[in-house]
Design a protein that fits this description.
It is a single chain. The chain has 133 residues and is an alpha+beta fold. Helices cover 20% and strands 39% of the residues. The protein is built from one helix and eight strands, in the order αββββββββ. A hairpin with a 4-residue loop joins strand 7 and strand 8.
């Protein structure tokens, strides 16, 4: 009986965790998030949807996550426009994403994002560029 109760608790935990990931993905996916560097604080980076009314700047980097595991990273190009680099994203756990790029892409390096806060119009993250496996 104790084993059955323990198994039920584990199942509930796994289901709850899956629901959290789906809610997180729903808020994150299919939006283009641009870096709102004016709002950064310490090691927290702030991103806002591309529909946000940003103050003027010389350019903004950003990314978008697609449901099929594709990430599109937007960096400032040599001509001051945006240059797109495609990679893959995956959940490491509920609030941690790993971003991977093709090793042949000499510009982009793998990184992880720890989601600190996520609302409809603001995403706050900690970015870790140490080696991701």
């Amino acid at each position: 009986m104790k084993q059955l109760s323990f198994l039920c608790i584990i199942c509930l935990f796994l289901v709850a965790n899956t629901c959290k990931e789906r809610k997180l993905e729903k808020k994150l996916l299919q939006k283009t998030w641009l870096h709102s560097f004016e709002e950064d604080a310490d090691d927290i980076l702030v991103y806002r949807p591309n529909t946000y009314d940003f103050p003027p700047s010389r350019g903004r980097t950003g990314f978008s996550l697609e449901p099929n595991g594709v990430v599109k990273e937007y960096v400032i190009a040599p001509t001051d426009g945006l240059e797109e680099h495609e990679g893959r994203w995956e959940h490491a756990d509920h609030k941690l994403l790993h971003i991977h790029f093709n090793p042949k892409d000499k510009i982009m390096k793998d990184y992880s994002l720890e989601i600190v806060e996520l609302e409809d119009d603001v995403l706050k993250v900690k970015k870790n560029t140490e080696t991701i496996h």
